[in-house]
From TrEMBL:
PROSITE patterns per UniProt: ANK_REP_REGION, ANK_REPEAT
Organism expressing this protein natively: Paramuricea clavata (Red gorgonian)
Annotated protein name in UniProt: Ankyrin repeat domain-containing
Composition-biased stretches (Acidic residues): 598-609
Ranges of Polar residues composition bias in the record: 784-793
Length: 1201
C-alpha cells in the first residue's frame, strides 16, 4: 500500500553517460523488477488488497498467536513477488503485529476466515473441496491444451498453457495451506492447551478409537477355527474398514503420510495408508492394555517365525508392539492342545485317511548354542513331521458300502502273474499311453515343421558359430504369431487327454511333531503307534506263528523275532520318554537363566560329566547282552547239576539238588532270555529230558509262556517230540483251551503238522473240561473259555464272529476294523522301505498300514534313469555343453537331484533334450521317402480338416522301419519315445490329479528301474504295482486314484504331489521357522501351528513387500532345442544306416577312441519286462513275506473246502 515510484539512485563514482550505459536500458528497482507502477496503480493495488482482506479476515489481536504467510498468500492468490506488499498490508491492519523472519509467520494476530465460520471446525473439508475444484479445472485445461494443439491452434494453446500454469501454482499453494492447518491442529492436540480441540472432535475421535479396537479384534482367540482369519487380504480389509468407520482418523493419516498424490509404482498411497493403519493398531494397546488387539499378536507370531526369542519379544512388548513372550507361547500351546479335537472332528472313525510322514533334520551346531548341545545331546535333531489328508470319497461311496469291494483284494496273490504287471495286460492304461505318445509326437511334428523358421542354409551346412548368429536374430514368438502354417496340425490340450482330474480343494491336517527318527525301525514303529492312538487304529502286540503249507511246518523263530522286535520297541519307548523328560528339565533351566556370553563359555567344559549327552539312553545291546549272559550261566549251572546228580552213586544227590533248587524257584521262573524263554523252555527245546524232569520235580510251571506265547508243550509238538509230550502231559501240561489265546494250541499244531502219534496221545489224555487251570479260571469268571472267539482276538474282528446284522450286504467302514481296507502312508523310498520292514516284523500290529511311494521323488529318479540310459550317448553333452547349462553335472542328476532346485533343472533338461532329439528325427523324416507328398497332404486336409492322421501315421511307420534296421536309431528314439513323454505324462498326472495317468507312469517305471538296476526303486515300483493291480481292494484303489495329489486352492491344474506337499509346505517352513530356536518344545509349538504361522507370514509379506518384482516371463527353450537338434543332425543320430552302432559322446573331447553304448541302455522296456518275468517269484517272495506263508486258519479253511 505504501509503494511509490521513486527513481533509482545512481551509484557514486560511475559516469552516467558512458557508451555502455547509453546503449543499455535503465535499471529498475528490485521491488518492481518486472514492471513499473505509478502512484495511481499503487493506490489501486493497495485498495484491492485491503478489500480482499476485509472479505476474508475478521480481525482480532491476541498475543502469542501466529499465522503462516503462505496461508494468506494462497487465499489471496498472491505470487512470491507480492510478499513485501502483504507484509506492509498486515502492518497497516495490525499495528502490533511483528513478522518473525525465520519462521515466516505473523505474530499477535489471529485470523478468523469468514467463509469458514459457518462450518466451524470443517475448515479442512472446505479447503479440500477447493483443492478438488482446482484439480478438476486443471484436468479440463490440460485437455483443452491437447485439443488446441491437435487443431494447430498454437496461440490459443499458448494462452491455455499460461492459464494452466497459474492455476497449478494456486493448486500447490492450496495444498500447502491445508498442510499448514493440519500442522496447527496437531500442535494443538499435542499441547497442553487441549481446549483448542472442539468437543465434537473429541467425541468423534473417541468413537473412532473404540471402533478401531473392535476392528483389531480379529477373532484369533476365539474357539472357532481361526484359519479363516489369516488371509493375505487381512490388512487390506482392515484399511477398507478403517476408511469406512473412522473417517476423521483416516483423513489425518492420509494427510500425514500421503504427501504426493502422484501414483507411484512401489510405495503407493494405499501401501502407505496400510502401514499407517497397522502402526496405529499397534498403538491401541499403549492406550488400553486390556484391549484384545490381535494385530499385536500377529506381529509377535511373525517375529517368532523369523527366530525372535524371549528377550527380543519382551523388548518389543515393553514398547507396546507385541504381547509378552509367555502370552505368545500360551496361545501356541492352546492351539496345539486343540489339535487332537480337530483330528477327531475332521477324521471320524468312519472316514478313511491318507497319512504323510517324512524326516526333518534340524542342525543345531552353531557356536552360540554350544552350551545347549553340550547338555542336550547331538548337534543334529532327526525328527519326523506328519500330516493327514481327509480324502474325497464322494465318487466311491457305493464301493465303500460293499464288503467285497471294500475289504477283499482285487486278485488273490497266488493268482498274480508277471504279465499282469505290464502295460499290455491293462487295456485302459495301454490306450491312455498310446494316445499320450501320439499327442507328444504331434507336438514334435508341429514344433519342427511349423515352429522353426527356415534357416539361410540347411542345418547340416551350418557351423556352431553360424547357428548361434542365426538364432540371435530369429524371433520365434513373432514367427509363431505371424507366419502361415504350412502343415495344419491340431494339438489336443493336456487337460483334454486326462481321463479325470482333482479340482476340489484338499482337506489337510498337519499333525504334531514326532521326536522319533523314522529312519530307524524302532522309531518308525513308535510313529505308527502314535498314528494308531490319534486315529483309533488298533496296534495289538500279538504274535503270529507262520505255517508253511508245503513243508507242513511252523516257523517259531519268526514269532520269536516278532516278540524281540516289539520288546526293542518297548525299550525304545522307555528311552524316548526318559530323553524327553531330560530335555524338558534342561530347557526349563536354560529358560530360567540368561543368555550371557560368559555363561556360555563357562558351561562348555562341564557338559561331558553330567551324564546328559546320552540322554538317558539304555541301548538294546546294554539290556540284552547281560540278560542273555545271566540266563546262559544259570542254564549251564542247573544243567550241570542235573547231569551230575543223575550220574552220582549217592542216592541222596538228586534230593539234595531238588532241595537246593526249590529255594531258588522264583529266580528260575523269572530268569529269561531275549525271547522271553525260561530255562524250562530251553530244556524242552534241547530235549534235555533229565533237566526237564528235574525242573518239574522242583515245581516249575509246565504251562509257562515265553514272549511270543509258546508253552513248553508247544515247543515239544513243534519238535515232534513224543517223549517230551508224554512227560509234560503227566505233569498237567495243557494242550488246548483258552490258555493259548490267539496262539495255536498244541493240539491244533499237531493236527496241522499231521503228527498222528501226538494227536492220538492228546486224544487219549483229552481232559479239556477237567483241566484244573480251566476250572480255576471258570470259578473266577464263569464266562471264561465259553466264548470261542476269545481264543483269537485278531480273528474276532472277522465278520463271521460278529452277530448278524439286518443287512449282511451293507458294509460300514471303520478304521478300528482295519482288516482288508488299509490305511495309506505316503513317503519317499526310504520311508516306504522302513515301513515295510516294520510291518514284516510284526504283521499283526502293523498290518493296517500300506505304503505309497512319493511321486516327486519318483520323477527325480526317472530323470536319473534318463541320464543313466542316455547320458553317455549324447544326452549329457547336449544339455551341458551344447545348451550351455553347466550346472547340469553328473551329481545334479544323481546324488544332488533333490538339492538346490536341481529337480526342476533336470526335469527341464529331459524335456528340452527330448524335444531336440524329436525335432532332429522330424527333420530326417521330412527328407525321407516316407514323408507324405503334397497331393497326399492336400487330400488329408480335405478329408479330415487337418494333417494329424497322415503325418502321425507316416512318422510312426518311419520310426518303426528305422528302428528295425538301425540299432543306433532305435537307441536314440528312446529319449523322445519313452523318457520324454513319460516324464511329461507323470508331471501332468500330478498337476491335474489324474490317478489313471499316475498308475500308467508307475507301470512303465517298473521295467525301467528293473533294467537300469535301481534296486530300491525297482522293489518300490514292483510292490506298488502289485498292490494297486491285485492286493488293494477296489474301493481303496479308487480312493488313492482320486486323491493322489494335494489341491490347495481349488483350481484345476495347480495340484502338487503328496510328498512334494510334505517337503514344500511342512519340512521347509519348519526348518525356516526353527532357525534361531533351540528348544524341542518350541519346535513342537511351531509344528503344531505351522498352518497358522505360514498364513501369518503371508498376510505380512504380501501387502508390505513393496519391492515385489514384476513376474518374469519364462524364457523360451526353443533356441536351446534348436541347438540340440543341430547337434543330433551333425552327429547323424537319426541318419539310417544298416548295422550302425550307437557310440558314446563324452562331455569333454577325448583323444581315446569312443566306446559303443552299453547294451543295457538299449531296449530298456522290453529288457526290463523280461528281467521282471525272470525274477518275479523271487521278488514276490522277498517283498511279500506275509503271503508266502499260510496261517493255520487259512489252511483249515482250505482243507474244509
Amino acid at each position: 500500500p505504501d509503494a511509490t515510484s521513486t527513481p533509482v539512485k545512481k551509484r557514486p563514482g560511475k559516469h552516467p553517460l558512458t557508451p555502455e550505459s547509453k546503449a543499455a536500458a535503465e535499471s529498475k528497482p528490485k521491488r518492481f523488477a518486472s514492471y513499473n507502477l505509478s502512484s495511481v496503480q499503487c493506490n489501486e493495488r493497495r485498495h484491492r488488497l485491503f478489500t480482499e482482506l476485509e472479505h476474508i479476515v475478521e480481525y482480532h489481536e491476541e498475543s502469542d498467536v501466529y499465522v503462516k504467510q503462505s496461508l494468506l498468500m494462497a487465499l489471496l492468490d498472491l505470487s512470491d513477488d507480492d510478499k513485501s506488499i502483504l507484509t506492509r498490508s498486515i502492518k497497516g491492519l495490525f499495528p502490533n503485529s511483528n513478522k518473525k523472519t525465520m519462521m515466516i509467520e505473523y505474530e499477535t494476530m489471529y485470523p478468523f476466515f469468514k467463509r469458514l465460520l459457518a462450518v466451524d471446525s470443517n475448515e479442512i473439508l472446505v479447503l479440500q473441496n477447493e483443492i478438488n475444484i482446482k484439480e478438476n479445472s486443471l484436468v479440463e485445461e490440460a485437455a483443452g491444451v491437447v485439443s488446441a494443439l491437435d487443431s494447430d491452434n498454437t496461440e490459443f494453446a499458448r494462452e491455455l498453457a499460461k492459464t494452466y500454469q497459474g492455476n497449478l501454482e494456486q493448486y500447490l499453494k492450496l495444498n500447502s495451506a491445508l498442510i499448514t492447518i493440519y500442522e496447527s491442529k496437531l500442535r494443538k492436540l499435542d499441547g497442553s492447551d487441549a481446549e483448542k480441540i472442539s468437543s465434537s472432535q473429541k467425541e468423534q475421535i473417541e468413537k473412532e478409537i473404540k471402533e478401531m479396537e473392535k476392528m483389531c479384534s480379529l477373532g484369533m482367540r476365539e474357539e472357532s477355527d481361526v484359519q479363516d482369519v489369516f488371509k493375505k487380504e487381512i490388512f487390506n480389509n482392515l484399511l477398507s474398514n478403517f476408511e469406512e468407520k473412522c473417517p476423521l482418523l483416516h483423513s489425518v493419516l492420509q494427510t500425514l503420510l500421503v504427501t504426493d498424490k502422484r501414483q507411484r509404482v512401489y510405495k503407493t498411497s494405499e501401501y502407505k495408508l496400510t502401514c499407517g493403519v497397522n502402526a496405529l493398531s499397534l498403538l491401541l494397546s499403549v492406550r488400553n492394555q486390556k484391549c484384545k488387539n490381535d494385530v499385536r499378536l500377529l506381529l509377535g507370531l511373525v517375529c517368532v517365525t523369523y527366530g525372535a526369542g524371549k528377550q527380543f519379544i519382551n523388548l518389543l512388548n515393553s514398547i507396546g508392539l507385541t504381547p509378552h513372550w509367555d502370552t505368545i507361547n500360551n496361545y501356541l500351546d492352546q492351539r496345539q492342545e486343540k489339535l487332537s479335537k480337530v483330528i477327531k472332528d475332521k477324521c471320524p472313525e468312519t472316514t478313511p485317511v491318507i497319512l504323510l510322514m517324512d524326516n526333518v533334520n534340524i542342525y543345531r551346531g552353531r557356536k552360540r548354542h554350544l552350551r545347549l548341545f553340550k547338555s542336550l545331546g547331538p548337534k543334529m535333531w532327526n525328527f519326523t513331521v506328519r500330516g493327514a489328508i481327509i480324502p474325497d470319497i464322494s465318487e466311491i461311496e457305493e464301493l465303500m458300502t460293499c464288503k467285497e469291494t471294500a475289504t477283499m483284494p482285487q486278485t488273490d496273490i497266488s493268482q498274480v502273474k508277471a504279465e499282469d504287471l505290464f502295460l499290455d495286460s491293462m487295456p485302459e492304461h495301454k490306450k491312455l499311453w498310446d494316445d499320450w505318445l501320439d499327442g507328444y509326437y504331434l507336438e514334435l511334428l508341429d514344433g519342427s515343421l511349423n515352429g522353426i523358421p527356415k534357416p539361410p542354409k540347411p542345418f547340416l551346412e551350418m557351423s556352431e558359430v553360424d547357428l548361434n548368429s542365426w538364432l540371435s536374430k530369429v524371433d520365434f514368438g513373432k514367427h509363431k504369431r505371424e507366419s502361415v502354417k504350412k502343415f495344419k496340425i491340431s494339438l489336443p490340450s493336456k487337460q483334454e487327454r486326462c481321463l479325470n482330474n482333482q479340482s476340489k480343494k484338499t482337506d489337510v491336517v498337519n499333525l504334531p511333531l514326532s521326536l522319533e527318527d523314522n529312519s530307524t525301525l524302532t522309531g518308525t514303529a513308535a510313529i505308527l503307534e502314535q498314528f494308531g492312538k490319534e486315529f483309533s487304529i488298533p496296534c495289538p502286540h500279538h504274535y503270529e506263528i507262520p505255517f508253511d503249507k508245503l513243508e507242513k511246518k511252523y516257523d517259531l523263530k519268526s514269532a520269536r523275532l516278532q516278540y524281540e522286535f516289539m520288546r526293542s520297541v518297548d525299550v525304545h519307548n522307555t528311552e524316548m520318554q526318559e530323553m524327553e523328560k531330560q530335555l524338558r528339565s534342561y530347557e526349563k533351566q536354560i529358560d530360567a537363566s540368561t543368555y550371557d556370553v560368559n555363561d556360555t563359555e563357562s558351561d562348555t567344559d562341564s557338559g561331558d560329566d553330567d551324564g546328559t549327552r546320552s540322554s538317558g539312553s539304555v541301548t538294546k545291546k546294554a539290556v540284552q547282552q547281560p540278560k542273555d549272559a545271566r540266563f546262559k550261566a544259570l542254564y549251564e549251572r542247573i544243567s550241570n547239576m542235573a547231569q551230575d546228580s543223575s550220574h552220582s552213586i549217592n542216592d541222596d544227590a538228586l534230593d539234595n539238588v531238588i532241595q537246593k533248587l526249590s529255594n531258588d524257584i522264583e529266580l528260575i521262573d523269572k530268569t529269561r532270555d531275549q525271547y522271553g524263554r525260561t530255562i524250562f523252555h530251553c530244556a524242552v527245546e534241547t530235549k534235555n529230558y533229565v533237566l526237564v524232569k528235574l525242573l518239574l520235580a522242583v515245581g516249575v510251571n509246565p504251562n509257562a509262556k515265553e514272549g511270543c506265547g509258546a508253552t513248553p508243550m508247544t515247543i515239544a509238538v513243534l519238535n515232534a517230540d513224543l517223549d517230551a509230550s508224554k512227560i509234560l502231559l503227566e505233569n498237567f501240561a495243557e494242550f488246548e483251551g483258552a490258555l493259548f489265546g490267539s496262539f495255536p494250541s498244541p493240539l491244533e499244531i499237531a493236527t496241522a503238522m499231521e503228527l498222528a502219534d501226538i494227536v492220538e496221545l492228546f486224544q487219549s489224555y483229552s481232559r479239556a473240561n477237567d483241566s484244573p487251570i480251566v476250572e480255576a479260571l471258570q470259578r473266577f469268571d464263569s464266562s471264561f473259555g465259553n466264548n470261542k472267539s476269545s481264543q483269537n482276538p485278531i480273528e474276532g474282528m472277522d465278520d463271521d464272529s460278529n452277530p448278524p446284522t439286518e443287512s449282511d450286504d451293507k458294509y460300514e467302514y471303520k478304521r478300528s476294523d482295519c482288516k482288508g481296507f488299509p490305511t495309506a502312508i505316503v513317503g519317499d523310498v526310504g520311508t516306504c522301505k522302513i515301513n515295510r520292514g516294520v510291518k514284516h516284523r510284526n504283521s499283526t500290529a502293523y498290518s493296517w498300514m500300506t505304503e505309497i511311494p512319493g511321486d516327486m521323488h519318483a520323477k527325480g529318479h526317472l530323470c536319473e534313469a534318463t541320464f543313466k540310459a542316455h547320458g553317455k550317448g549324447g544326452f549329457h553333452k547336449v544339455v551341458n555343453y551344447v545348451m550351455k547349462r553347466p550346472k547340469l553335472t553328473e551329481e545334479a542328476f544323481k546324488k544332488r537331484k533333490f538339492q538346490e532346485q536341481n529337480l526342476n533343472h533336470i526335469q527341464e533338461s529331459v524335456r528340452d533334450a527330448s524335444c531336440a532329439y524329436g525335432f532332429a528325427a522330424v527333420e530326417e523324416f521330412k527328407a525321407s521317402d516316407e514323408f507324405p507328398s503334397d497331393e497326399d497332404l492336400t487330400g488329408a486336409l480335405r478329408k479330415n480338416g487337418n494333417h494329424n492322421t497322415i503325418l502321425l501315421n507316416s512318422f510312426k511307420k518311419w520310426l518303426k522301419k528305422c528302428a528295425e534296421s538301425d540299432d543306433s536309431h532305435s537307441y536314440h528314439q528312446q529319449l523322445f519315445s519313452l523318457f520324454g513323454p513319460l516324464l511329461d505324462l507323470f508331471l501332468t498326472a500330478g498337476k491335474e490329479g489324474d490317478g489313471t495317468l499316475r498308475e500308467t507312469a508307475w507301470v512303465l517305471l517298473l521295467p525301467i528301474f528293473a533294467q537300469l538296476n535301481f534296486r530300491n526303486y525297482w522293489t518300490e515300483a514292483f510292490v506298488h504295482v502289485v498292490n494297486f493291480t491285485s492286493l488293494w481292494p477296489l474301493a481303496f484303489r479308487r480312493m488313492v486314484k482320486n486323491n493322489m495329489s494335494v489341491n490347495l486352492g481349488g483350481k484345476r491344474g495347480h495340484n502338487v504331489d503328496l510328498d512334494e506337499y510334505v517337503e514344500t509346505y511342512i519340512v521347509r517352513p519348519l526348518k525356516n521357522y526353527t532357525t534361531g530356536h533351540t528348544s524341542v518344545q518350541m519346535c513342537q509349538r511351531l509344528m503344531g501351528n505351522l498352518d497358522v504361522l505360514g498364513s501369518v507370514r503371508r498376510s505380512f509379506t504380501e501387502p508390505f513387500n513393496y519391492h515385489q518384482t514384476t513376474k518374469h516371463k519364462e524364457q523360451s527353450s526353443l533356441p536351446d532345442v534348436v541347438k540340440g537338434m543341430w547337434f543330433c543332425l551333425a552327429n547323424n543320430f537319426f541318419t539310417v544306416s544298416s548295422g550302425k552302432v550307437a557310440m558314446e559322446h563324452p562331455l569333454k573331447s577325448a583323444t581315446v577312441p569312443r566306446k559303443p553304448v552299453s547294451q543295457v541302455c538299449m531296449g530298456v522296456v522290453k529288457k526290463g519286462e523280461k528281467k521282471v518275468k525272470d525274477k518275479f517269484k523271487s521278488k514276490l517272495h522277498e517283498s511279500f513275506p506275509s503271503y508266502r506263508k499260510l496261517s493255520l486258519e487259512n489252511l483249515q479253511a482250505t482243507d474244509s473246502e
